[in-house]
Amino acid sequence: xxxxxxxxxxxxxxxxxxxxxxxxxxxxxxxxxxxxxxxxxxxxxxxxxxxxxxxxxxxxxxxxxxxxxxxxxxxxxxxxxxxxxxxxxxxxxxxxxxxxxxxxxxxxxxxxxxxxxxxxxxxxxxxxxxxxxxxxxxxxxxxxxxxxxxxxxxxxxxxxxxxxxxxxxxxxxxxxxxxxxxxxxxxxxxxxxxxxxxxxxxxxxxxxxxxxxxxxxxxxxxxxxxxxxxxxxxxxxxx
Length: 239
Prior knowledge:
Rossmann fold, alpha/beta, globular, 39% helix, seven-stranded mixed β-sheet
């Protein structure tokens, strides 16, 4: 695993340097990361009832999430991933080449997923992706995802969130930065990345995310994981 030693300069991009160290970056940057990843996989298992199921990963990055699902369910599924970064898609292709499964990887803006999807997914995942989609485009994207799901399909959404109470937001962010320091990041790296993400990563509030999911049509929405300013949601389409 390549260590993340990036000192961000300019607007954040998922370029080759980020792609090469992405696994290390996630594990050291996201609090309680291992728990989130495990729950993302475990909490969807009851919804894989079909002998053959479809899974879509929005913002599949280097294929880490697809890798987890394929390694567990293997040939039971037809898998698709989409990501705006060509470098990430290339990395995902290399990572997942070991599997002999039905898999399609797409290099395009995630908002264009309607042009590619099969309209019969049991599981859709979006791990730390929609936060990079312009806020005004998020309702449309969630509407598309809802339409592509089978009845009783499950959508897993993990996002960085904004606390509506200023004091809590500052407290959580400060605690988050301390965790990053404990994981080996310097103050210079932390502040440089913060600046580079301004206007690129725009977090929503918990209530804002829940309202968008419900407005898209999801019948049941709840939180399955939360750590500081990160939150994971499970949304069920209903029959």
